[in-house]
Amino acid sequence: xxxxxxxxxxxxxxxxxxxxxxxxxxxxxxxxxxxxxxxxxxxxxxxxxxxxxxxxxxxxxxxxxxxxxxxxxxxxxxxxxxxxxxxxxxxxxxxxxxxxxxxxxxxxxxxxxxxxxxxxxxxxxxxxxxxxxxxxxxxxxxxxxxxxxxxxxxxxxxxxxxxxxxxxxxxxxxxxxxxxxxxxxxxxxxxxxxxxxxxxxxxxxxxxxxxxxxxxxxxxxxxxxxxxxxxxxxxxxxxxxxxxxxxxxxxxxxxxxxxxxxxxxxxxxxxxxxxxxxxxxxxxxxxxxxxxxxxxxxxxxxxxxxxxxxxxxxxxxxxxxxxxxxxxxxxxxxxxxxxxxxxxxxxxxxxxxxxxxxxxxxxxxxxxxxxxxxxxxxxxxxxxxxxxxxxxxxxxx
Length: 397
Ligand SMILES: Cc1ncc(COP(=O)(O)O)c(C=O)c1O
Description:
By secondary structure, the protein is an alpha/beta fold. It is built from 13 helices and 19 strands. It has helices at residues 6-23, 40-43, 55-65, 78-85, 96-107, 110-113, 148-151, 172-190, 213-227, 237-240, 268-271, 274-277, 389-396; strands spanning 2-5, 26-27, 29-30, 49-52, 68-73, 90-93, 118-122, 159-163, 197-199, 230-233, 244-256, 259-264, 284-287, 309-311, 318-323, 332-338, 347-350, 372-375, 381-385. The strands form two sheets. Strands 1, 11, 12, 13, 14, 15, 16, 17, 18 and 19 form a ten-stranded mixed beta sheet that branches. Strand 15 (318-323) and strand 16 (332-338) form a beta hairpin. Pyridoxal-5'-phosphate (PLP) is lined by residues 30, 32-33, 51, 72, 165, 168, 201-203, 234-238. The site of pyridoxal-5'-phosphate has 15 residues, from helix 10.
Protein backbone atom coordinates (compact mmCIF):
# COMPACT_ATOMS: atom_id res chain seq x y z
CA UNK A 1 0.00 0.00 0.00
CA UNK A 2 0.93 3.64 -0.51
CA UNK A 3 0.92 5.49 2.81
CA UNK A 4 0.98 9.30 2.68
CA UNK A 5 1.76 11.30 5.81
CA UNK A 6 -0.34 14.43 6.21
CA UNK A 7 2.09 16.05 8.72
CA UNK A 8 4.99 15.43 6.29
CA UNK A 9 3.06 17.06 3.44
CA UNK A 10 2.24 20.01 5.66
CA UNK A 11 5.87 20.34 6.74
CA UNK A 12 6.64 20.83 3.02
CA UNK A 13 3.79 23.23 2.30
CA UNK A 14 4.73 25.36 5.33
CA UNK A 15 8.23 25.78 3.85
CA UNK A 16 6.77 26.62 0.45
CA UNK A 17 4.43 29.15 1.99
CA UNK A 18 7.38 30.80 3.76
CA UNK A 19 9.18 31.13 0.42
CA UNK A 20 6.26 32.58 -1.45
CA UNK A 21 5.54 35.08 1.29
CA UNK A 22 9.19 36.17 1.47
CA UNK A 23 9.45 36.48 -2.32
CA UNK A 24 5.94 37.87 -2.79
CA UNK A 25 5.19 35.38 -5.55
CA UNK A 26 2.56 32.71 -6.21
CA UNK A 27 3.20 29.00 -5.80
CA UNK A 28 1.01 26.12 -6.97
CA UNK A 29 1.16 22.33 -6.81
CA UNK A 30 2.03 20.59 -10.10
CA UNK A 31 -0.58 17.85 -10.27
CA UNK A 32 1.54 15.82 -12.67
CA UNK A 33 3.81 15.04 -9.70
CA UNK A 34 1.24 14.49 -6.98
CA UNK A 35 -2.52 14.40 -7.48
CA UNK A 36 -3.90 12.50 -4.48
CA UNK A 37 -6.87 14.84 -4.28
CA UNK A 38 -8.13 13.71 -0.91
CA UNK A 39 -5.05 15.40 0.59
CA UNK A 40 -5.93 18.76 -1.01
CA UNK A 41 -7.91 20.05 2.00
CA UNK A 42 -4.68 19.75 4.02
CA UNK A 43 -2.60 21.67 1.43
CA UNK A 44 -5.03 24.32 0.28
CA UNK A 45 -4.28 26.92 2.92
CA UNK A 46 -0.54 27.15 2.19
CA UNK A 47 -0.60 27.02 -1.63
CA UNK A 48 -2.24 29.18 -4.31
CA UNK A 49 -3.73 26.38 -6.37
CA UNK A 50 -2.56 23.84 -8.93
CA UNK A 51 -0.96 23.66 -12.32
CA UNK A 52 -2.47 21.20 -14.75
CA UNK A 53 -1.06 19.34 -17.74
CA UNK A 54 -4.39 19.38 -19.54
CA UNK A 55 -8.14 19.33 -19.10
CA UNK A 56 -8.48 16.40 -16.70
CA UNK A 57 -5.92 17.66 -14.22
CA UNK A 58 -7.42 21.14 -14.56
CA UNK A 59 -10.84 19.75 -13.68
CA UNK A 60 -9.40 17.96 -10.66
CA UNK A 61 -7.81 21.24 -9.56
CA UNK A 62 -11.01 23.23 -10.00
CA UNK A 63 -13.25 20.66 -8.33
CA UNK A 64 -11.06 19.65 -5.42
CA UNK A 65 -8.39 22.31 -4.79
CA UNK A 66 -10.72 25.20 -5.58
CA UNK A 67 -8.07 27.89 -5.99
CA UNK A 68 -6.05 29.07 -9.01
CA UNK A 69 -5.77 26.74 -12.00
CA UNK A 70 -2.84 27.23 -14.40
CA UNK A 71 -2.90 25.03 -17.49
CA UNK A 72 -0.14 24.23 -19.92
CA UNK A 73 -0.08 21.35 -22.38
CA UNK A 74 2.24 20.56 -25.31
CA UNK A 75 -0.93 20.51 -27.47
CA UNK A 76 -4.67 21.15 -27.01
CA UNK A 77 -7.61 20.27 -29.22
CA UNK A 78 -10.68 22.47 -29.82
CA UNK A 79 -12.85 20.80 -27.20
CA UNK A 80 -10.14 21.11 -24.54
CA UNK A 81 -9.59 24.79 -25.25
CA UNK A 82 -13.35 25.43 -25.16
CA UNK A 83 -13.69 23.64 -21.81
CA UNK A 84 -10.56 25.24 -20.29
CA UNK A 85 -11.64 28.75 -21.28
CA UNK A 86 -14.57 28.32 -18.87
CA UNK A 87 -12.47 28.09 -15.73
CA UNK A 88 -8.66 28.11 -15.99
CA UNK A 89 -6.90 31.35 -14.98
CA UNK A 90 -3.81 30.84 -17.13
CA UNK A 91 -3.83 29.03 -20.46
CA UNK A 92 -0.27 28.61 -21.68
CA UNK A 93 0.57 27.40 -25.20
CA UNK A 94 3.60 25.40 -26.25
CA UNK A 95 4.04 26.71 -29.78
CA UNK A 96 3.09 29.69 -31.91
CA UNK A 97 1.15 27.37 -34.22
CA UNK A 98 -1.07 26.26 -31.28
CA UNK A 99 -1.59 29.88 -30.20
CA UNK A 100 -2.47 31.05 -33.72
CA UNK A 101 -4.84 28.12 -34.15
CA UNK A 102 -6.84 28.99 -31.01
CA UNK A 103 -6.23 32.73 -30.73
CA UNK A 104 -9.57 33.91 -32.16
CA UNK A 105 -11.51 31.36 -30.10
CA UNK A 106 -9.78 32.51 -26.90
CA UNK A 107 -9.84 36.26 -27.62
CA UNK A 108 -13.59 36.11 -28.20
CA UNK A 109 -14.29 34.38 -24.90
CA UNK A 110 -16.01 36.53 -22.24
CA UNK A 111 -13.54 35.41 -19.55
CA UNK A 112 -10.62 36.57 -21.69
CA UNK A 113 -12.34 39.90 -22.36
CA UNK A 114 -12.98 40.44 -18.65
CA UNK A 115 -9.37 39.62 -17.73
CA UNK A 116 -10.25 36.44 -15.76
CA UNK A 117 -8.41 34.31 -18.34
CA UNK A 118 -4.84 35.15 -19.28
CA UNK A 119 -2.80 33.49 -22.02
CA UNK A 120 0.90 32.74 -22.07
CA UNK A 121 3.56 31.06 -24.18
CA UNK A 122 6.07 28.46 -23.04
CA UNK A 123 9.55 29.54 -24.01
CA UNK A 124 12.69 27.49 -24.45
CA UNK A 125 15.67 29.52 -23.19
CA UNK A 126 18.01 26.88 -24.71
CA UNK A 127 19.92 26.69 -21.44
CA UNK A 128 20.49 23.12 -20.22
CA UNK A 129 21.45 22.91 -16.55
CA UNK A 130 20.39 19.35 -15.60
CA UNK A 131 22.22 16.05 -15.66
CA UNK A 132 19.56 13.75 -17.18
CA UNK A 133 18.83 14.19 -20.94
CA UNK A 134 15.41 12.56 -20.52
CA UNK A 135 14.40 15.51 -18.30
CA UNK A 136 15.97 18.28 -20.38
CA UNK A 137 13.42 20.38 -22.27
CA UNK A 138 16.25 22.62 -23.52
CA UNK A 139 18.04 19.90 -25.48
CA UNK A 140 18.63 20.72 -29.15
CA UNK A 141 15.50 19.98 -31.16
CA UNK A 142 13.26 19.89 -28.07
CA UNK A 143 9.53 19.93 -28.77
CA UNK A 144 8.84 21.83 -25.54
CA UNK A 145 8.63 25.60 -25.80
CA UNK A 146 9.39 28.39 -28.27
CA UNK A 147 12.94 29.58 -28.84
CA UNK A 148 13.89 33.25 -28.99
CA UNK A 149 14.59 32.82 -32.71
CA UNK A 150 11.09 31.46 -33.34
CA UNK A 151 9.51 34.29 -31.36
CA UNK A 152 11.41 37.10 -33.10
CA UNK A 153 9.03 39.49 -34.86
CA UNK A 154 5.88 37.55 -33.89
CA UNK A 155 2.61 39.38 -33.28
CA UNK A 156 1.85 38.53 -29.64
CA UNK A 157 -1.43 40.39 -29.30
CA UNK A 158 -3.41 38.67 -26.55
CA UNK A 159 -0.40 37.17 -24.79
CA UNK A 160 0.35 38.38 -21.28
CA UNK A 161 2.67 35.73 -19.84
CA UNK A 162 5.80 33.73 -20.49
CA UNK A 163 6.38 30.29 -19.00
CA UNK A 164 9.56 28.26 -18.78
CA UNK A 165 10.14 24.86 -17.23
CA UNK A 166 13.75 23.78 -17.56
CA UNK A 167 14.80 22.37 -14.16
CA UNK A 168 14.55 18.94 -12.56
CA UNK A 169 15.50 18.31 -8.93
CA UNK A 170 17.79 21.34 -8.92
CA UNK A 171 19.02 24.02 -6.56
CA UNK A 172 18.53 27.76 -7.09
CA UNK A 173 21.95 28.18 -8.74
CA UNK A 174 20.46 26.46 -11.81
CA UNK A 175 17.54 28.90 -11.70
CA UNK A 176 20.01 31.79 -11.59
CA UNK A 177 21.76 30.48 -14.72
CA UNK A 178 18.41 30.00 -16.45
CA UNK A 179 17.18 33.48 -15.55
CA UNK A 180 20.31 34.99 -17.07
CA UNK A 181 19.48 33.17 -20.34
CA UNK A 182 15.84 34.30 -20.12
CA UNK A 183 16.95 37.91 -19.60
CA UNK A 184 19.36 37.74 -22.54
CA UNK A 185 16.91 36.12 -24.96
CA UNK A 186 13.46 37.21 -23.79
CA UNK A 187 14.08 40.25 -21.53
CA UNK A 188 12.96 42.69 -24.24
CA UNK A 189 9.60 40.89 -24.45
CA UNK A 190 9.11 40.78 -20.68
CA UNK A 191 9.72 44.52 -20.42
CA UNK A 192 6.70 45.21 -22.66
CA UNK A 193 3.71 46.44 -20.65
CA UNK A 194 1.47 43.67 -22.02
CA UNK A 195 3.42 41.04 -20.01
CA UNK A 196 2.01 40.65 -16.52
CA UNK A 197 3.27 37.20 -15.47
CA UNK A 198 6.30 34.95 -15.65
CA UNK A 199 5.86 31.29 -14.74
CA UNK A 200 9.17 29.70 -13.69
CA UNK A 201 7.84 26.13 -13.88
CA UNK A 202 8.86 23.32 -11.54
CA UNK A 203 12.01 21.37 -10.76
CA UNK A 204 12.88 23.64 -7.81
CA UNK A 205 13.94 21.33 -4.96
CA UNK A 206 12.79 23.94 -2.45
CA UNK A 207 11.94 21.62 0.44
CA UNK A 208 15.23 19.75 0.46
CA UNK A 209 17.36 20.67 3.49
CA UNK A 210 20.29 21.78 1.31
CA UNK A 211 18.22 23.98 -1.05
CA UNK A 212 19.31 27.63 -1.05
CA UNK A 213 15.95 29.30 -0.40
CA UNK A 214 17.47 32.73 0.26
CA UNK A 215 18.84 32.81 -3.26
CA UNK A 216 15.44 31.76 -4.67
CA UNK A 217 13.75 34.59 -2.80
CA UNK A 218 16.35 37.05 -4.07
CA UNK A 219 16.00 35.86 -7.69
CA UNK A 220 12.21 35.97 -7.65
CA UNK A 221 12.22 39.44 -6.06
CA UNK A 222 14.73 40.76 -8.62
CA UNK A 223 12.70 39.31 -11.48
CA UNK A 224 9.44 40.81 -10.23
CA UNK A 225 11.04 44.21 -9.85
CA UNK A 226 12.98 44.11 -13.11
CA UNK A 227 10.01 43.31 -15.36
CA UNK A 228 7.04 44.37 -13.23
CA UNK A 229 5.49 40.88 -13.53
CA UNK A 230 3.83 38.49 -11.11
CA UNK A 231 6.04 35.41 -10.65
CA UNK A 232 4.57 31.91 -10.40
CA UNK A 233 6.37 28.76 -9.28
CA UNK A 234 4.82 25.34 -9.88
CA UNK A 235 6.74 22.60 -8.07
CA UNK A 236 5.41 19.06 -7.86
CA UNK A 237 8.15 17.06 -6.20
CA UNK A 238 8.93 19.74 -3.60
CA UNK A 239 5.35 19.49 -2.31
CA UNK A 240 5.35 15.74 -1.79
CA UNK A 241 8.98 14.82 -1.25
CA UNK A 242 9.65 12.66 1.82
CA UNK A 243 5.96 12.36 2.58
CA UNK A 244 5.03 8.85 1.47
CA UNK A 245 6.12 5.23 1.26
CA UNK A 246 5.13 2.12 -0.67
CA UNK A 247 4.88 -0.98 1.52
CA UNK A 248 5.42 -4.36 -0.12
CA UNK A 249 5.26 -8.02 0.89
CA UNK A 250 7.84 -10.63 -0.03
CA UNK A 251 5.92 -13.25 -2.02
CA UNK A 252 8.76 -15.63 -2.91
CA UNK A 253 12.48 -16.06 -2.36
CA UNK A 254 14.60 -18.18 -4.69
CA UNK A 255 17.96 -18.55 -6.37
CA UNK A 256 19.06 -18.67 -9.99
CA UNK A 257 22.69 -19.26 -11.06
CA UNK A 258 23.89 -18.09 -7.65
CA UNK A 259 21.73 -14.97 -7.73
CA UNK A 260 19.27 -14.58 -4.85
CA UNK A 261 15.88 -13.16 -5.82
CA UNK A 262 12.89 -11.89 -3.84
CA UNK A 263 9.62 -11.47 -5.73
CA UNK A 264 7.50 -8.72 -4.20
CA UNK A 265 3.82 -7.82 -4.23
CA UNK A 266 4.67 -4.52 -5.93
CA UNK A 267 6.31 -3.89 -9.28
CA UNK A 268 8.91 -1.42 -10.53
CA UNK A 269 7.28 -1.04 -13.91
CA UNK A 270 3.67 -0.83 -12.67
CA UNK A 271 4.12 1.09 -9.41
CA UNK A 272 7.49 2.87 -9.41
CA UNK A 273 8.33 3.38 -13.11
CA UNK A 274 10.83 6.18 -12.42
CA UNK A 275 13.11 3.58 -10.85
CA UNK A 276 13.46 2.20 -14.39
CA UNK A 277 12.96 5.39 -16.42
CA UNK A 278 15.10 7.89 -14.57
CA UNK A 279 16.68 5.49 -13.41
CA UNK A 280 17.42 5.60 -9.67
CA UNK A 281 17.87 3.33 -6.66
CA UNK A 282 15.22 3.82 -3.97
CA UNK A 283 15.92 3.39 -0.26
CA UNK A 284 14.40 0.14 1.04
CA UNK A 285 13.79 -0.87 4.65
CA UNK A 286 13.13 -4.29 6.12
CA UNK A 287 10.54 -4.24 8.92
CA UNK A 288 11.65 -6.52 11.75
CA UNK A 289 11.08 -5.80 15.45
CA UNK A 290 13.19 -8.78 16.49
CA UNK A 291 16.43 -7.25 15.16
CA UNK A 292 18.28 -4.64 17.28
CA UNK A 293 16.82 -1.15 16.76
CA UNK A 294 18.25 0.70 13.75
CA UNK A 295 19.63 4.27 13.80
CA UNK A 296 16.75 6.72 14.30
CA UNK A 297 18.14 8.90 11.46
CA UNK A 298 17.70 6.04 9.00
CA UNK A 299 13.93 5.86 8.99
CA UNK A 300 11.41 5.85 6.16
CA UNK A 301 9.24 8.93 5.56
CA UNK A 302 6.27 7.19 7.15
CA UNK A 303 6.73 4.93 10.20
CA UNK A 304 4.18 2.85 12.07
CA UNK A 305 4.21 2.63 15.87
CA UNK A 306 5.94 -0.50 17.15
CA UNK A 307 7.80 -1.20 13.90
CA UNK A 308 11.57 -1.35 13.60
CA UNK A 309 13.18 -0.46 10.24
CA UNK A 310 16.51 -1.65 8.81
CA UNK A 311 17.87 0.21 5.79
CA UNK A 312 19.10 -2.18 3.10
CA UNK A 313 22.71 -1.79 1.98
CA UNK A 314 24.56 -2.49 -1.23
CA UNK A 315 26.62 -5.50 -0.18
CA UNK A 316 26.61 -8.26 2.42
CA UNK A 317 25.80 -11.93 2.84
CA UNK A 318 22.03 -11.46 2.36
CA UNK A 319 22.03 -9.72 -1.01
CA UNK A 320 18.80 -10.03 -3.02
CA UNK A 321 17.65 -8.83 -6.39
CA UNK A 322 14.21 -7.38 -5.69
CA UNK A 323 11.73 -7.93 -8.50
CA UNK A 324 8.08 -7.32 -9.24
CA UNK A 325 5.35 -9.86 -9.97
CA UNK A 326 5.01 -9.00 -13.70
CA UNK A 327 6.29 -10.85 -16.76
CA UNK A 328 8.83 -8.13 -17.63
CA UNK A 329 12.33 -9.57 -17.17
CA UNK A 330 13.54 -6.08 -16.26
CA UNK A 331 10.89 -5.51 -13.59
CA UNK A 332 13.72 -5.20 -11.08
CA UNK A 333 14.25 -2.62 -8.34
CA UNK A 334 17.93 -3.37 -7.86
CA UNK A 335 20.11 -5.43 -5.56
CA UNK A 336 19.74 -4.84 -1.84
CA UNK A 337 21.54 -6.37 1.16
CA UNK A 338 19.55 -7.15 4.32
CA UNK A 339 20.66 -7.98 7.89
CA UNK A 340 19.17 -11.48 7.60
CA UNK A 341 17.68 -13.86 5.04
CA UNK A 342 14.41 -12.61 3.57
CA UNK A 343 11.33 -14.74 4.22
CA UNK A 344 7.96 -15.01 2.50
CA UNK A 345 5.62 -12.60 4.29
CA UNK A 346 8.34 -10.06 5.23
CA UNK A 347 7.38 -6.41 4.83
CA UNK A 348 9.66 -4.08 2.87
CA UNK A 349 9.15 -0.30 2.82
CA UNK A 350 10.17 1.70 -0.25
CA UNK A 351 10.92 5.24 0.84
CA UNK A 352 9.84 8.56 -0.66
CA UNK A 353 7.18 7.17 -2.96
CA UNK A 354 4.49 9.88 -2.94
CA UNK A 355 5.59 11.94 -5.96
CA UNK A 356 5.71 10.66 -9.55
CA UNK A 357 4.61 7.22 -8.37
CA UNK A 358 0.89 7.21 -7.60
CA UNK A 359 0.28 9.38 -10.70
CA UNK A 360 2.17 6.91 -12.92
CA UNK A 361 0.89 3.54 -11.76
CA UNK A 362 -0.58 1.07 -14.23
CA UNK A 363 -2.51 -2.19 -14.05
CA UNK A 364 -0.02 -3.97 -16.33
CA UNK A 365 -0.38 -7.78 -16.07
CA UNK A 366 -3.42 -7.19 -13.86
CA UNK A 367 -1.09 -6.86 -10.88
CA UNK A 368 -2.90 -5.89 -7.74
CA UNK A 369 -2.83 -2.12 -7.36
CA UNK A 370 -1.58 -0.91 -3.96
CA UNK A 371 -4.26 0.66 -1.79
CA UNK A 372 -3.96 4.33 -0.79
CA UNK A 373 -3.80 5.18 2.90
CA UNK A 374 -3.35 8.46 4.79
CA UNK A 375 -1.49 8.73 8.06
CA UNK A 376 -2.82 11.57 10.23
CA UNK A 377 -1.00 13.66 12.85
CA UNK A 378 -2.14 11.37 15.70
CA UNK A 379 -0.71 8.35 13.85
CA UNK A 380 -4.12 7.00 12.85
CA UNK A 381 -4.51 5.48 9.39
CA UNK A 382 -7.32 6.22 6.95
CA UNK A 383 -7.74 3.93 3.96
CA UNK A 384 -8.86 6.11 1.04
CA UNK A 385 -9.11 3.50 -1.65
CA UNK A 386 -8.65 -0.21 -2.23
CA UNK A 387 -8.50 -1.55 -5.77
CA UNK A 388 -10.03 -4.70 -7.16
CA UNK A 389 -10.69 -6.73 -10.29
CA UNK A 390 -13.41 -4.28 -11.43
CA UNK A 391 -10.84 -1.45 -11.62
CA UNK A 392 -8.65 -3.59 -13.87
CA UNK A 393 -11.59 -4.64 -16.08
CA UNK A 394 -12.99 -1.12 -16.39
CA UNK A 395 -9.70 0.32 -17.62
CA UNK A 396 -9.91 -1.89 -20.69
CA UNK A 397 -13.44 -1.23 -21.95
C1 LIG B 1 5.55 22.42 -17.05
C2 LIG B 1 5.90 21.77 -15.76
N1 LIG B 1 5.66 22.41 -14.61
C3 LIG B 1 5.95 21.86 -13.41
C4 LIG B 1 6.51 20.60 -13.32
C5 LIG B 1 6.81 20.01 -11.96
O1 LIG B 1 8.15 19.72 -11.80
P1 LIG B 1 8.73 19.13 -10.42
O2 LIG B 1 7.80 18.08 -9.95
O3 LIG B 1 10.07 18.60 -10.80
O4 LIG B 1 8.81 20.28 -9.47
C6 LIG B 1 6.78 19.89 -14.51
C7 LIG B 1 7.39 18.54 -14.46
O5 LIG B 1 7.67 17.89 -15.41
C8 LIG B 1 6.46 20.48 -15.76
O6 LIG B 1 6.68 19.82 -16.91
